[in-house]
Specification:
Elements lengths: L1 H29 L12 H55 L3 H20 L2 H13 L2 H13 L4 H4 L6 E4 L2 E4 L1 H9 L5 H6 L4 H6 L1 H16 L8 H14 L9 H30 L8 H10 L4 H15 L6 H29 L10 H5 L3 H14 L3 E4 L10 E5 L2 E8 L7 H13 L4 E6 L5 H9 L2 E4 L1 H10 L1
Parallel strand pairs: 5-6, 6-7
Antiparallel strand pairs: 1-2, 3-4, 4-5
Helix pairs in contact: 1-2, 4-12, 5-12, 12-14, 13-15, 14-15, 18-19
């Protein structure tokens, strides 16, 4: 209404000015102090006409404004009545379905109870409770820890075995229960923190391992008497054992208890491998909290294979994450990183050899070696290992217990038997080396020859973890130095 009030005031001001000017005009005309036009009407009628022209327009406009304002007021009053009626109708409609505020509270409580009831029937929730119970079963944990010492497990496949999975056509996906649990289940348990790391994209990225996990766990569970072999046969037998011997109580959904056991093997497997890695580092006097590059360099210098170095670094990292990392994601990244570090170390060593000013090293051919005596060959092998970065010494001629050279690098001790033969080397040399290695308390045992090994010698060496260097390998090693 501000515009209407403004126009009204403007007209009122205009009217006042017009009346004021008209009064002055009439007064002047009446006293003959103002010259008027000469016409038949005279001065006074002329003043009255002038006054009407000045006053009537704003007066008429003001009347119009007042009338329009009155109409607006009537419309506003009518709208207020309509709004009041609509509000009353709405309130009555609401009251007819929800009589009072307590009914609203009841509805909210009903919804909460329904969600909670659905959650208690959810496989993720149930698995979490089963796994929590399993983790507190000392006897069960002891059984699984001992099982890991004598069986091979695949953490890459086990990682997906305890997830709620469903197979649609040829594709494995997460069940709707999984997403329901993520939305409504608020828990900080080991298993649920593990579950929260997964999504559909991750399963698609590691589709092969996911399919193996789904097929193996379900097939082997549903076919207890079937032709089952391999890793999952061991899991099946273990579950039957702990179930039949009442190590665990199963009063509902046996299949979920089986999945829970698979997750426990996965978790305990991580812890077991980490324990082995810690023992390895302790034996080599390497601090667990050392820099990664420092650990890799020390392991490499101690002649630890590349795959064991990668496993060790992964174990260190998984312990730092409280075993809550995903091996399918973390291990390939660590593998790539460690491979690059080791490659760099090798290149630096190769470059150092090329920059070495001492190039007057003795060169040996296999034909020269064939003419050597046994003692000369032993000294050659000691020299070879010294050039390869070991500290090598020839043992005493008498009482050497079948070991000719002892080579050490860091904490690793290698017992070596050197055989300069004109014929192939048989089983006897292998047996002597194994016995002599125990006498010297060696970590590794080797047999090196300028010839070759018989088939039976190779088999015996393999069964006793004896490393064999034949004529071809010896040639390659001599070329390296």
């Amino acid at each position: 209404m501000k515009k209407i009030s403004g126009k009204f005031i403007g007209c009122l001001v205009y009217l006042c000015i017009g009346v004021f000017i008209s009064l002055i005009y009439i007064l002047c005309a009446a006293t003959n102090n103002l010259e008027v036009t000469e016409n038949t009407m005279g001065a006074i009628p002329s003043a009255i006409i002038f006054t009407c022209c000045m006053v009537l327009p704003p007066l008429i406009w003001m009347i119009y404004i007042l009338a329009k304002k009155q109409v607006y007021n009537v419309i506003d009053n009518k709208n207020e009545v309509i709004n009041d009626q609509f509000e009353e109708k709405t309130i009555n409609s609401i009251n007819s379905t929800i009589p009072d505020n307590s009914k609203k509270s009841i509805n909210i409580e009903d919804k909460r109870l329904r969600i909670e009831n659905q959650l208690h029937q959810n496989s993720v929730y149930i698995l979490d409770k089963i796994i929590d119970k399993f983790l507190n079963e000392d006897k069960l944990n002891t059984i699984i820890n001992n099982y890991l010492k004598t069986h091979t497990i695949s953490l890459f496949v086990l990682e997906f075995c305890a997830l709620p999975l469903i197979k649609v056509q040829d594709k494995v996906d997460l069940t709707p229960e999984f997403y329901f649990a993520l939305k409504f289940y608020n828990c900080d348990s080991q298993y649920f923190n593990f579950v929260k790391k997964f999504n559909r994209d991750l399963l698609n990225s590691y589709e092969k391992n996911v399919k193996i996990a789904f097929d193996m766990r379900n097939y082997y569970y549903d076919n207890w008497q079937g032709p089952i072999v391999g890793e999952f046969k061991g899991y099946q037998n273990l579950f039957q054992l702990i179930r039949n011997q009442k190590i665990i109580e199963i009063d509902f959904d046996e299949k979920l208890h089986y999945y829970a056991m698979l997750y426990l093997i996965y978790l305990k497997g991580k812890q077991y491998f980490t324990h082995l890695a810690e023992e390895r580092l302790e034996k080599l006097d390497i601090e667990l909290d050392s820099d990664e590059l420092n650990i890799v360099e020390k392991l490499y210098k101690n002649d630890i294979p590349e795959n064991i170095i990668i496993d060790t670094i992964w174990c260190i990292n998984t312990k730092k994450s409280n075993y809550n990392d995903l091996i399918n994601i973390e291990y390939p990244a660590i593998q790539y990183r460690i491979t690059q570090i080791i490659q760099d170390i090798k290149e630096k060593e190769q470059l150092q050899k090329l920059l070495d000013t001492n190039s007057n090293k003795t060169k040996y051919s296999l034909y020269d070696i064939d003419l050597m005596s046994g003692g000369q060959f032993e000294h050659l092998i000691a020299y070879l290992f010294n050039q390869l970065g070991y500290k090598a010494e020839v043992t005493k001629l008498s009482g050497d217990q079948g070991i000719d050279v002892i080579a050490t690098k860091g904490k690793t001790k290698i017992a070596i038997q050197a055989k300069c033969y004109s014929q192939t080397v048989g089983n006897h040399a292998i047996m002597e080396a194994v016995a002599g290695a125990k006498y010297y308390n060696a970590d590794k045992v080797m047999v090196v020859t300028n010839n070759y090994f018989t088939k039976s010698a190779k088999e015996l060496a393999q069964s006793n973890n004896v490393v064999l260097w034949d004529r071809q390998i010896l040639k390659e090693k001599l070329e390296e130095i």
